[in-house]
Specification:
The protein has helices spanning about 15-25, 80-85; strands at about 5-10, 30-35, 35-40, 50-55, 70-75, 95-100, 105-110, 115-120. By secondary structure, it is α+β, with helices and mostly antiparallel strands. Strands 2-3-4-1-5-8-7-6 form an eight-stranded mixed beta sheet, covered by helices on one side. The protein is globular, with a radius of gyration of 15 Å. It starts with a strand and ends in a 13-residue tail after the last strand.
Length: about 140
C-alpha cells in the first residue's frame, strides 16, 4: 500500500480553543472550516504543508467515535486498491468504503488502541462544502 500524504485529526469538543491556541502560539492559518471540522496549516520549509485538524461529531458518522483520541489520515492514490487489499485480510472495517461530500472517497479501521485510521483519495468537493475552503 503506497501512501501519498499523512495528517492527524484530533477528536474534541474544544475545536475553537484548539484553533485559537495554535493560531496564537504557532501562527497557523485556517485552511478549511466546516464548523464541525477545522483544518489548520502550520508554516514549514517542506514542500508539502503540515496540517492538523480538529473534529467534533457529525450526523453522517457515529457519535461514539468522536469522544477523544485521534485519526491518522492516510492519503492514497488509489483508495479502492487499498481497500481491496485489506479486504483479503482479517481486518475489521469501522467504515466501509464510501464517497463523502467533503471531497474524498474513504474507508476506516481502528488500530489496536482505538484510534481511527482513515484511508482516502481525494474527490470533487460537494457544493455545500465549497465555502469551507479557506486557502
Amino acid at each position: 500500500m503506497k501512501i501519498k500524504d499523512l495528517s492527524i485529526t484530533f477528536h474534541t469538543n474544544k475545536i475553537k480553543e484548539c484553533v485559537d491556541f495554535y493560531s496564537k502560539y504557532f501562527q497557523t492559518k485556517v485552511a478549511f472550516d466546516a464548523g464541525w471540522y477545522v483544518m489548520i496549516r502550520l508554516e514549514s520549509d517542506n514542500v508539502t504543508p503540515i496540517y492538523l485538524s480538529f473534529q467534533g461529531g457529525i450526523e453522517e458518522m457515529p457519535r461514539d467515535s468522536f469522544t477523544g483520541g485521534m485519526t491518522l489520515n492516510l492519503m492514497s492514490e488509489d483508495v479502492d486498491a487499498c481497500y481491496e487489499q485489506l479486504k483479503l485480510t482479517d481486518i475489521s472495517f469501522f467504515e466501509e468504503i464510501t464517497d463523502h461530500e467533503w471531497g474524498d472517497r474513504a474507508f476506516s479501521v481502528k488500530d489496536p488502541i482505538g484510534n481511527l485510521v482513515y484511508v482516502y483519495s481525494e474527490r470533487e468537493l460537494h457544493e455545500k462544502y465549497k465555502d469551507a475552503v479557506k486557502e
